Sequence to fold (361 residues):
Amino acid sequence: MKKNFLLITGGTGGHVIPAKNFANYLSVKNINCSIITDKRGYKYFDNYNGKIYIISSSNLNGNLIFKILGIFQILLGLIQSFVIIFILKPSHSISFGSYASFSPMLICVLFKPFNKVKLFIHEQNSIIGRTNKFFMTFTNRLFLNFDIKYKINPKFKNKIFVVGSPENNFQKNTNISNKNSDSNFTIFISGGSQGSEFVSNFATNLIKIIDNEKIIKAKFIFQCPKPLIKKYAEELRNIKSPIILEDFFINVDEILADANLAICRAGAGTIVDLINFKLPSILIPLPSSKDNHQFFNAKILAKHGLAIIIDQNNDDLEIAKKHIYETYSNEKKIESMNKKFDIIKVKNSNTLIYKLIVNEN
Fold:
């Protein structure tokens, strides 16, 4: 049977980017691959040239009117998914989670007895998402990002494989010590794919303190929401430390490769990047993340001493400042971090996932 892959994703960058990376990997191997996503997810496919189908979706949030509208959007998404999947007749379907994946995955399950499609799930976070959890019974294999203890029914243990997260082919740094901390200590600040005013406010206050105390020489690369660029540019106009302030950086891999520390949220994609680039961090989990999964993501690094976790409700600038100063000056700490990053180094995910899919009995 000819391989015909369908990748299902949507919502935030944390769900979409791993799917895009795996799709690009399949394209290089000349394997037929199509993608189903929603309008939110589509914006992350800027450098993908394969087939993309956009469906309607909803997370059913909001008041009663929004919930009713959401139900109609889901029903429309089901119809759209039915037509797309009926035409494509995929041999393998892989869901990367999010509420946008629900409709196409449900159609795949309904079609499974007829076209023998094999179903797979990839979970990026440290807690299984609700959509992925719903479809675990029907999947052939469940791919996990992190090698930690997930709360999963033991009856699924034979389906579980720790594979990491699909990534692009950018050359990563192999040693923290290779970065010249003394002359160009670079701090990267980002609120994640959705942007974050809290992270931006926190970082702005931290920059003011560091610049005023003059204990370290630092450069700041600051990604903040576009509507707030003018606000923070004005607040930071008297800062003497070098600052690059933008709403988006197309060369984020290069930035991460050269940075010495990051201040950011704790989405799954962010955690993987921090591990890949061996980048110490100050993590501020989004309190409203489903099942508080960002906090549990952050603990993966914090338990190894590779990050500190800041509670958004406490806004503790002193703890963050201390962590930055120690990372700047403590060579033993940096070398220890380097070894610990090696312990939790992620796998060659694209190749591993592909082999597990095509060799599935």
The chain has two domains: 4-167+347-358, 176-343. Residues 140 and 276 are 28 Å apart (CA to CA). The chain has a mean pLDDT of 88.
